Amino acid sequence: MHENRESPNPHQSSVTRGMMPKFTSQRFSVAPMLDWTDRHCRYFHRQLTRQALLYSEMVTTGAIIHGKGDYLAWNEQEQPVALQLGGSDPVALAQCAHLAELRGYHQINLNVGCPSDRVQNGRFGACLMAEAVLVADCMKAMRDKVSIPVTVKTRIGIDEQDSYEFLCDFIDTVAGHGECDTFIIHARKAWLSGLSPKENREIPPLDYPRVYQLKRDFPHLTIAINGGIKSLQEAQRHLQQLDGVMIGREAYQNPGLLAGVDSALFGDDSPAVNPLDVVRAMFPYIECELSRGTWLGHITRHMLGLFQGIPGARQWRRHLSENAHKPGADVSVVEKALSMVADRQPLVDRV
């Protein structure tokens, strides 16, 4: 295990230690999650928080450049949205970043954290931590092509390359040569073999102090933290040390958490969000998507956890799960499920 270094190190900048300005655009975000944070999910999450930065699923450069589908599709009401890219070819990444900027994305993020075999075979994701110069080349190519922010999401280490010095060298190279000023750090290392992606999110121990130390040693960079954060109270504690917090699965499985983000983390004094109103706000979007051939279940699958802890939540989930994927399912299915929820207490009272 490393030892936290309180004294200056070779990576320390001349900026005063401890200066941590607020970077509102990165202050709170919902993590990119493959097969989960699609455009329907993001539209739903935007009904719960106006301030959070939302991320796309990871999209590979090959899919964008050569795929037959529109992998950059989104709704303008989702903004601000960051596109997470998977790839390691600077030219292809720059091309995709440019296309994303033209489509109106708020930020570009490079995936240097996913440990899956499929991602490694494509030479991107967490395995790129071992190729800091290549990551820097990729970042520089994208930054030269677009005017929107370009960021990196990474781990604290990979395999046996898990020392604090290794992490600092990676950050120093990507920030210096790559001109990257924003890093989202998943506070676990990744094992590139022997663990599944799910196990890599749970088995390697969390090391929040290492991320805190990174901010102290690189105070001029924007550093956000990710991994194992389950409440806004935890997020507030992290924000005492860092510039931003990213929450993934907890925000997806318990989306009611997002209803408290604007007031708790951004000082927004708007009225509390009512979960019934959130669902009703989705109706026009659902009807529009159904008219375009989207199946109801592709939208409502992201909404199942909305009433967690509220009487009727089980009936809500069951009705949607059993009926939303049926041919011809429409908004009436959601209305019926909504009638089964008894408690109308605002979600923020339950966060």
Automatic annotation (TrEMBL):
What cofactor is needed? FMN
Residues annotated as site: Interacts with tRNA: N111, K198, R201, R314, R317
**Gene3D superfamilies named in the record:** 1.20.120.1460, Aldolase class I
Cite the EC number: 1.3.1.91
Q: Which domain of life is it from?
A: Bacteria
The top EC class is: oxidoreductase
Q: Per UniProt, where does FMN bind?
A: P32, M33, L34, Q84, K153, H186, N226, G227, G228, G248, R249
Q: Which PROSITE patterns match?
A: UPF0034
Q: Which UniProt keywords apply?
A: Flavoprotein, FMN, NADP, Nucleotide-binding, Oxidoreductase, RNA-binding, tRNA processing, tRNA-binding
List, from the UniProt record, the residues annotated as the active site of this protein: C114
Recorded catalytic reaction(s): these are: 5,6-dihydrouridine(20a) in tRNA + NADP(+) = uridine(20a) in tRNA + NADPH + H(+); 5,6-dihydrouridine(20a) in tRNA + NAD(+) = uridine(20a) in tRNA + NADH + H(+); 5,6-dihydrouridine(20) in tRNA + NAD(+) = uridine(20) in tRNA + NADH + H(+); 5,6-dihydrouridine(20) in tRNA + NADP(+) = uridine(20) in tRNA + NADPH + H(+)
Pfam (any one): Dus
Q: Which family does it belong to?
A: Belongs to the dus family. Belongs to the Dus family. DusA subfamily.
Q: What is this protein called?
A: tRNA-dihydrouridine(20/20a) synthase
Q: What is the lineage of its organism?
A: Bacteria, Pseudomonadati, Pseudomonadota, Gammaproteobacteria, Enterobacterales
